């Protein structure tokens, strides 16, 4: 009988305990996935890329203009991420035969960011592709504001870092203002805050 592992986590909304899956550790590369998670929690870029194939690909949540390919590029990105992010913790872990879905939370500049990760595995169980998504919008723009300059500095592009800092600050300000002022206009009735009229 193949070795199995149970993944459980707290449902942040309802407080329920969720059993994510029973998986064959040999089939889904539990060691690589666990190593990736442990490295993220420890903010250790080197340990994270050790769980990847040499030609792994990371799909950014910020743009479709480019992707990070190979351990060197992903290592450089993760170093920048761990420079600006803190309190990194995983919450959900759902695994299939050749993939895993993870959710995590972190803080950047005091803003909580909720991240979704889709990991694809090769035949040996190493991580070969990572696709990321981030919510809510203000968290995405604060990530853009912090990560762009940090990554450009690591790439030895100081002028680009300054330009990205200015552009990121503008996008972040627009997103935060919109989230406070305009997004609530589309809120469902159950979420609206009503102020009692004076008698």
UniProtKB/TrEMBL annotation:
SUPFAM superfamilies the UniProt entry points to: NTF2-like
Source superkingdom: Bacteria
Protein name (record): Uncharacterized protein
Taxonomic lineage from the root: Bacteria, Bacillati, Actinomycetota, Actinomycetes, Pseudonocardiales
């Amino acid at each position: 009988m193949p070795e199995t592992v149970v993944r459980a986590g707290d449902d942040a909304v309802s407080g329920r305990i969720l059993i994510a899956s029973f998986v064959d550790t040999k089939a889904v590369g539990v060691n690589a996935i666990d190593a990736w998670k442990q490295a993220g929690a420890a903010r250790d870029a080197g340990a994270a890329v050790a769980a990847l194939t040499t030609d792994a690909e990371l799909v950014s949540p910020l743009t479709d203009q480019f992707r990070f390919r190979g351990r060197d590029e992903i290592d450089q990105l993760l170093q920048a991420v761990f420079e600006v992010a803190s309190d990194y913790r995983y919450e959900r872990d759902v695994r299939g035969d050749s993939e895993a879905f993870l959710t995590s939370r972190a803080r950047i500049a005091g803003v909580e960011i909720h991240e979704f990760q889709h990991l694809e595995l090769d035949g040996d169980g190493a991580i070969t592709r990572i696709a990321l998504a981030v919510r809510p919008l203000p968290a995405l723009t604060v990530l853009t504001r912090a990560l762009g300059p940090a990554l450009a500095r690591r790439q030895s592009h100081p002028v680009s870092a300054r330009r990205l800092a200015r552009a990121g600050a503008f996008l972040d300000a627009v997103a935060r203002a919109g989230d406070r002022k305009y997004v609530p206009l589309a809120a469902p009735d159950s979420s609206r805050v009503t102020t009692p009229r004076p008698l």
